[in-house]
What we know:
CATH topology of the largest domain: TIM Barrel
CATH class of the largest domain: Alpha Beta
Number of strands: 15
Amino acid sequence: xxxxxxILIKNANVINAEKGTIEKGDVAISNGKxxxxxxxxxxxxEDLLDAKGxxxxxxxxxxxxxxxxxxxxxxxxxxxxxxxxxxxxTIDGGSAGIGTWPIFKRHIVDAGYLNIFYSINxxxxxxxxxxxxxxxxxxNYDVDKLxxxxxxxxxxxRGLKLxxxxxxxxxxxxxxxxxxxxxxDKLDCTITLHVTNPPCSMEEIVSKMRPxxxxxxxxxxxxxxxxxxxxxxKDAVFEARKRGVYFDSADARINHCYKVIKPSVAQGFxxxxxxxxxxxxxxxxxxxxxxxxxxxxxxxLGLSLEEVIADCTSHPAKIHHLPxxxxxxxxxxxxxxxxxSLEDRTFHLKNRMGEEFDGQKLIIPQxxxxxxxxxxxxxxxxx
Length: 383
């Protein structure tokens, strides 16, 4: 009796993000999971996708977005915006705090097609607006309520988020980061730390971060950066990486600077994760657009295709400890996959610092498969 396959992706350039390889092959999906496929055996195939000339990788993960729609001003509609971008999983970067978490969990995390995870903001209200900073006064940290969230929703909660910008922490003294680290130690969780426009030197910040913590916007260009006055990546940054601290590009519209990125890449300091920090104000704009364009930018900046894909699949999955085999194409893993093309297409970007960037190769998503279901297919992909 022939075995049944729900989706068979044939003739693709299959990217093994963990091994950093690209090989011709096929990918099979049945009952929401990747399954072994032997071309010598007979199968009943429900949906055959001929991916000749295309690439297939583990489903893309945008590790830093803001998707608390209708409650926060920056929040965008996750499924509507991200699925056509090839994204199968996303991590919200601290939109919700303990006060807004119940509605975020019920109406965002549990309500869509995407695999949604999140960092919980140390501010009880979360990041409601871009008009003014959230209140990160350590006096308002609530260990018990934070612990309850992290324990009751351990499948989706991924630690704490702190925006450590001078404009955010100025009213609350110089010990906000120290108090947040103390809080994370009590909760036995990691911190995702925003460092654009830091209130102190980058050396001081990275030296305090613990193994497993994630520093986002690491290539930012406001005040102290990871580059010294001679254009060299600071020793403290390399030392933090050796210690087990991770670095996320989280480019956004203003949180990246080419004067920092280019010498960093040239010196071998590449991101562990590539993400967008996408909001409804940044989506589809030429300052960010979304993950396909941000990945393309990094490809044009000198990273290999294998590196770029690992930075939005296997790397964030491991760093954030995502469940169910997310970030892989392993047999038995939840079937999240992205089929895409790599095309000679020019594109132009301009960030809020006034810097401009022109790229020559563009990564274009064609099919998004989430937990074994095709949730997006481009009209340019073979029907």
